[in-house]
Amino acid sequence: MAGPLDGVRVLDLSAVVVGPICTHVLCEQGAEVIKVEAPTGDLLRHLAGRGRSAGMNGKFLNFNRGKKSIAIDLKQPAGIEALRRVAATVDVFVTNIRPDAQQRLGVDADALRAAAPRLIHCSITGFGSGGPYAGRAAYDTVIQGASGVAGTFAASTGEPRYVPFLVADHTVGLVAAQLIGFALYRREKTGIGEAIEVPMFENMAAYIMQEHLGAASFRPPLGPPGDHRVLSPDGKPLPTKDGFVCISANTDAQAHAFFDAIGRPELKTDPRFAKVAQRVQHTKEYFHIRATSLGGRTTAEWLEIFDRMDVPASPYNTLSSLIDDPHLRAVGMVREEDHPTEGATIAIGAPNRFSGGNTPPRPPAPRLGADGAAILAQAGLSTDEIDALRHDGVLIEGMP
Amino acid sequence: MAGPLDGVRVLDLSAVVVGPICTHVLCEQGAEVIKVEAPTGDLLRHLAGRGRSAGMNGKFLNFNRGKKSIAIDLKQPAGIEALRRVAATVDVFVTNIRPDAQQRLGVDADALRAAAPRLIHCSITGFGSGGPYAGRAAYDTVIQGASGVAGTFAASTGEPRYVPFLVADHTVGLVAAQLIGFALYRREKTGIGEAIEVPMFENMAAYIMQEHLGAASFRPPLGPPGDHRVLSPDGKPLPTKDGFVCISANTDAQAHAFFDAIGRPELKTDPRFAKVAQRVQHTKEYFHIRATSLGGRTTAEWLEIFDRMDVPASPYNTLSSLIDDPHLRAVGMVREEDHPTEGATIAIGAPNRFSGGNTPPRPPAPRLGADGAAILAQAGLSTDEIDALRHDGVLIEGMP
């Protein structure tokens, strides 16, 4: 059994999260991913807390499973030349370095596609090339602030803040993988590759506007932007006797079942709550009832009741309890694994299933430069050439 | 010019956001998307605030651009039969109805693929079929609570809450489109379709664990889960004299430039802040300095300074200011458009660019059932058959 991208080869000149999650997904579906790192390694090796050895923290491991690592000094011309020789042998090139740096290294779309017309070149940028912010550097928080992500918190609770995970990096990386899939599909029909430009700002601004342009989608606006149901400051797991429970009761059938469950059947005919349009008008009161009605029973009791009455509900998981969730264990999303150099770890599984075949679990994430010599040999470099690169400090094998 | 999915036909039996954002993306890249709605329409037509006419609010418009709408009563056998006839003519079938309901309607993967072996069937579920929560209903908040999304807020500020946008629906819908692209690629090679299962819980749990398993990735854990930099309660746009600015300063070069910019060059050699590993250890102090150092100048002044010194930075956008952002206007992400029935609106553009061809802007979102008769005729139903469906209230054309 093999995943849908079996046989696709990807060269990944990216770091931190936006590029690595893109190529993680490609790898999970069967692609071979060659990760190009700077001599000191992907910044994420240093930015994300403790591991058992330098540069091998948990966050790095979890975004880089199954990849091969080559560490090259791209400040030396021989390093650039080595990179270009590998690039000539792959199907897909992914990078999140700025367009001017791509040109300086000769790894922009025009340069690489001139030598390899079937190549799909994916450039993840901060801001699209057609507007005044083009070429500016961007990281997750910059994009969260510019695109309205932080603005959703201001509209909800009064204070702008960032989502406590890298939502811009992570989302746009997933989108980049999606676009590469579409380009691979087109290449099967046309025989030629192409260049894809994936600007983070535009993607996240579209995302937030789709969610929250709302009444301001009309000219003149019918009201301020923002979906007030989703922005409700009461948008929280609901407190029970011993914890929290998470519910959704949007349809009339679900809302009525909820009112029955909490022993308030009269609300089913209350003109504020009987129909979906009425509940949308009275979101504040409806959410207040939900937030203050569950204190008399435990989470387990409520889950049993909601399950029986067909109100969508689930337990609330903390970051710690998630690891022990019985469903995640049962489906193989959380399993124990020995890393060849880092010892016992938790491996995160692949969430999706293809009837036409799935990729078997990939090996754990690589140490810096672990596969450099093999990758260069596969690209046609001789043993002497590789030795010279090693000798000149162009090829790095292991954390300095 | 045409997008990479030009010629692909998609039948979409989904509602609210997780399915509609999936097919929105497919449509944006050139696919023809047929949206199947219940007689009263997609729940999102009623759940998301005001429009100029019933069922045509801004959120619905922004998730359903370019689609065709057919409204069918699937409680009547003739409605199911009509749906199955359309399904036999498409490349991709997307649904988020529960597996047992799919079987009852005969639109599960086995049933539809028996009649159309090239069909790609994509089932977005709440929880994967292999675990104890299989078959349970799920909506965005249920998944945010179960998957650790709400738990990231508890780890950051002490209180579990939901992200104020539909991050589970939106993310998993983007992933579903990605997986469909991979399956289309494989179909070009094998000639046969396949079934894809996309469980929301597993996808979002993987997402949060990749971000935050951290030190708990090791057995025994090296520490509690959570990337403390990203969970910092100071993870916010930084206050200036007249507003906020968003920055990122992760590399040594960026952090040193930031210290110079705020007139505190001595911090460049401070053992707490000189190197990335030291700043990670002293995140709290570092973030505190960032949050309290910018009050003396305006946002515009800081942006000019940060631009000059190569510190990634951007203005902070509210939901309102986003619409007027000059970059978004310049690249066509925000433009004025007349909806044929709803009047003057804002249209959100397509964020990504393919050198091999892009889809021209799609028409605005449809009214309920606007294309029903044409879709049935295209699937081979005769005028008499269509009239009979109309007469029996199986085919609905317009909001009741």
Automatic annotation (TrEMBL), chains A, B:
Q: Where is the signal peptide?
A: none
**Record's InterPro entries?**
CoA-transferase_III_domain, CoA-Trfase_fam_III, CoA-Trfase_III_dom3_sf, CoA-Trfase_III_dom_1_sf
Q: Which GO terms describe its molecular function?
A: transferase activity
UniProt cross-references to Pfam families, sorted A to Z: CoA_transf_3
Q: What is this protein called?
A: CoA transferase
Upper classification of the source organism reads: Bacteria, Pseudomonadati, Pseudomonadota, Alphaproteobacteria, Acetobacterales
List every stretch annotated Disordered.
347-367
Q: Which organism is it from?
A: Roseomonas fluvialis
Q: Which UniProt keywords apply?
A: Transferase
